[in-house]
Amino acid sequence: MSEHPDLLAQVFDPVAFVRGDAPWSGKVAAARFARAAEQIGDLAATLDWRVEPERTPEGRAASRLRLEGVLPVVCPHCLAVAPWTVAIERLVVWYRSAAAIPEEELEEENWDARVMDEPITLLELLEEELLLAWPQGAVHDGCALPGPAQVGEPLSPFSVLLQMER
Ligand SMILES: [Zn+2]
């Protein structure tokens, strides 16, 4: 193990991060995305991650998350492993409490409002964004099969998981 602290595994402090005023970045092995693992074809694949500190015009702490690379995933359409080009960029805006989030901002689609009282690691944040962006249809050109449901095949464990999240 390296002597450097594992930035992904620490509880993320968005206020301290903005004060630090420096981006963090690194590589993350697909194996660390435990909730997605069953749908990943090669757990040794890595993605590049980056998080940048920002402030909203109102002065709120915000974090711009990026996750990029090619991940071999189980195609939801034909169930073969196919490369998915991941290009996620998402702004997370942090609020002291859920009550502080104006209602219209919960419906905002271009960024996420989060409450900073709920401890979360950077890895968990990145995994949430990965799951939200996960392909629901064919991930590759020329996917020929008509659909994911083969005879007697149950729902993919992943789609069940996504439903449980709600
Ligand atoms: Zn396919």
Structural topology:
Blueprint (H helix, E strand, L loop, with lengths): L13 H7 L3 E6 L16 E10 L5 E14 L6 E15 L7 H4 L4 E5 L6 H12 L23 H9 L1
Parallel strand pairs: 4-5
Antiparallel strand pairs: 1-2, 2-3, 3-4
General description of the model:
It is a single chain. With 166 residues, the protein is of the alpha+beta class. The chain has one domain (14-165). 19% of the residues lie in helices and 30% in strands. The protein is built from four helices and five strands. The protein has helices spanning 14-20, 103-106, 122-133, 157-165; strands at 24-29, 46-55, 61-74, 81-95, 111-115. It has a five-stranded mixed sheet with strand order 1-2-3-4-5. Strand 3 and strand 4 form a beta hairpin. It starts with 13 loop residues before the first helix and ends with a helix. Zinc ion binds next to loops.
Q: Helical percent range?
A: 10-25%
What binds here, in terms of ligands, is:
zinc ion
The beta-strand count equals 5
* Largest β sheet strand count, sense and barrel closure: 5 strands, mixed
Residues in β-strands, percent: 25-35%
In brief:
The protein has 166 residues and is α+β, with helices and mostly antiparallel strands. The chain has helices at residues 14-20, 103-106, 122-133, 157-165; strands spanning 24-29, 46-55, 61-74, 81-95, 111-115.
